[in-house]
Amino acid sequence: MTTGGPNFTDQTLRMVAHPSVGGAGLRVHLSNLRGTTPLAVGAVSVALQADRATAADGSQRAVTFSHKKALTIPAGQEVVSDPVPLSVRAEQNLLVSLYLPQATSSATWHSDAFDVSYLSKPGDHTADAEDGNYVAATTSWYYLSGLDVVAPAARGTVVAFGDSITDGYNTPASVYHRWPDDLARRLAGPHPSAVVDAGIGGNRVLTDVPNIWQGVSALKRFAHDALAQPGVRTVILMEGINDIGNNAGPGGVPLTAQQLIDGYRELIRQAHAAGVRILGGTLLPDKGAGYYSESAEAIRQAANAWIRTGGQFDGVVDFDQALQDPSDPAALRAGFDSGDHLHPNEAGMQAMADAVDLRLLNR
Fold first, then answer.
1. pLDDT tens string 242-264
2. Contact at 8 Å (CB) between 95 and 53?
3. Cut 0.85: pTM above it
4. Per-domain residue ranges for the chain?
5. CATH class for domain 153-361?
6. Which residues contact 301 (CB under 8 A, 6 or more apart)?
């Protein structure tokens, strides 16, 4: 989650959440982490989605926080709801509705959710079963930072951590064909693993992005966005192409491969200190994209060589090998290219998910 989203007054937001595992109960996470003023929340509800902003019959539940329906979240803070008794299947969409009675500022949001969210007319419409009072739509989430599913049979959580490629850029909204979605389907079964998508478009390993909605660096957000996820056992890290493409070394100096590798070493250190395994994902080819140059390609190749052979990660997922063009390994294979030569299409996302050796996740 980042800051810089739009402001709301006396309005209800109805957002779609797509769980990777099923269970018999839920907890809702709300965040004012990037906010600069307290956030007043008048009411929250959760329901199974029937269609668009319409709830399935009989599925609506009021959500409470410390047994209260209304709350104020201080700037820089987050809250987790009381347990909500609602059964949900894996990949069964949920509607989380949030009423904001007072003017907001500096929204904590996820700008590129690639899922449709609905905005209401004025008023508290959290209890509305139908969608008639929801009059606008967007593809961002606001203040909703997580949804826990109580799933006793699950084997824990895998966190896919990265940038816009992990975020799902250039994949269609509301179809759930990002590579973490595809990986979750591979991990389905009697004892599934949950998959959390912690991708943020434009994000970098070493430095904050000047555009505030693209977030603080991976080094700063890793502990919160990856290691603090409930039940996390393994992180799959694939990030660095934005550092390379922007030649963004620490302190404004030109980037070197060693700086990027040192960033990876620090993320590995943080993961291991938390008792979490971390897999290194090689960086995808990008020849033909605006980021590409011979000097940038040399850094990508050096980073990938270290990921493969450095022996510091607990395992390697060779995304580069899986998606490169056999006749030109510096470029994406045409059948996997969304058209910008940087982001994979749906077939490419599936190929990324298929490149993960599931044995690395079940140790």
1. 999 999 999 999 999 999 999 99
2. yes
3. yes
4. 2-147, 153-361
5. alpha beta
6. none
